[in-house]
């Protein structure tokens, strides 16, 4: 009677497809025996798919006795399915209880940040492994281009996700702080959910499309990859995951490669020709101290004496630590790009002010600046080890779809045509840097600038 009642209760929580998947996953884990799933058996089965530490901590949650002094030897299907249910339909409070029960307890009302960091690390490693072994996953394109996941970058990612929880990561905090953190860290919730969704569907023999598709991409599609054997990425996959989650939702689905100093050369004009009019962009810089940092420019780049962009832009560091600095709204000094000026800076800047930049790349290429304080971005710290840094390597990626210019921009409206002088942005940048005046700008065909 008890088992039948429990099954009816389980039936009411899931669709028929989900129930078939969960029953199959349960039989797979128990070796085909009904109501005979042991903790050791579950850990051994799940460790084939996710990190062993995550399998062990989840089994700890599942096999914790409901009453003190009791021992839980076997768990039924209803209990086995709880992590899946909590990830798909559970409240923050339910997820909080699962997380707390999956970590070593330090007290009734506290948790240890180091334990949480280790748990997040195991979730990140499990996600990468699941994607790497998933047929049709876009992660294979990133792997083929050289993007890897090291222990260090995964651990730094875990620390980066905890940065808004506490600056001191060696002590205990009240459970209320963990609940608040879950509310304000959707990236962890998204990766966490994906791990358990894939875990159950894999062991349940179901196709992945049974699970609801993610509304927002975790890992972007890699587009227009560099076709060069000399390409070596500056960043790793955890860096891609971390930065992608900071982008506006409409730009998280796709990254388009634009420029690499290792492939295209250490040339400011070449870089400009690759990035202008390409939509929002991400800059990744590795300096001679092997710090990795950059910025997100929310609008297309164009030459001019004025700042442009909007408060969607941000600066970030990726190594030795992952941090993101969003706009304060104090000023609008988001994007600056100018050349061949005697009284104004020549180069590309983001944040701060003239001569005191959050991030600046000199037009002669190779030199940059990141000062100690920048009011444009919140909680900002100097990006590079030294205020004046030397660029060792730099990449630029566009995000989202290539912007489509309207007819007015292209000069196609009212029978107008675009001049050849408006193309070849790289050539124009070279002339600007060299100080050559564009005399031919005044020789357009009639009607082009009306």
Distance linking N and C termini: 85 Å
**Biggest sheet layout:** 12 strands, mixed
Please report which band the strand proportion falls in: under 5%, 5-15%, 15-25%, 25-35%, 35-45% or over 45%: 15-25%
Percent helix:
25-40%
Task: Determine Rg (CA atoms, Å).
Answer: 26 Å
Helix tally equals 17
Gross morphology: elongated
Mean residue pLDDT: 87
Count the beta strands: 16
Spans of at least 5 consecutive residues with low confidence: 411-423, 439-450
Structural class: alpha+beta
Compact description:
This protein is an alpha+beta fold and 450 residues long. 37% of the residues lie in helices and 18% in strands. The chain has helices spanning 2-11, 16-30, 39-46, 52-62, 77-80, 82-89, 92-102, 113-132, 139-144, 151-161, 175-184, 186-203, 237-244, 261-264, 268-275, 407-410, 425-434; strands at residues 37-38, 74-75, 110-112, 172-174, 221-223, 254-260, 281-287, 292-297, 304-308, 314-319, 323-326, 335-338, 347-353, 356-362, 367-369, 388-399.
Task: Name its key features.
two-stranded antiparallel ribbon; 18% strand; disordered C terminus; twelve-stranded mixed beta sheet; 17 helices; 450 residues; alpha+beta; 16 strands
What does this structure look like?
- The longest helix has 20 residues.
- The protein is elongated and about 80 Å long.
- The protein is an alpha+beta fold.
- Strands 5, 6, 7, 8, 9, 10, 11, 12, 13, 14, 15 and 16 form a twelve-stranded mixed sheet that branches.
- It is 37% helix and 18% strand.
- It is built from 17 helices and 16 strands.
- Helix 2 crosses helix 12 and helix 4 crosses helix 8.
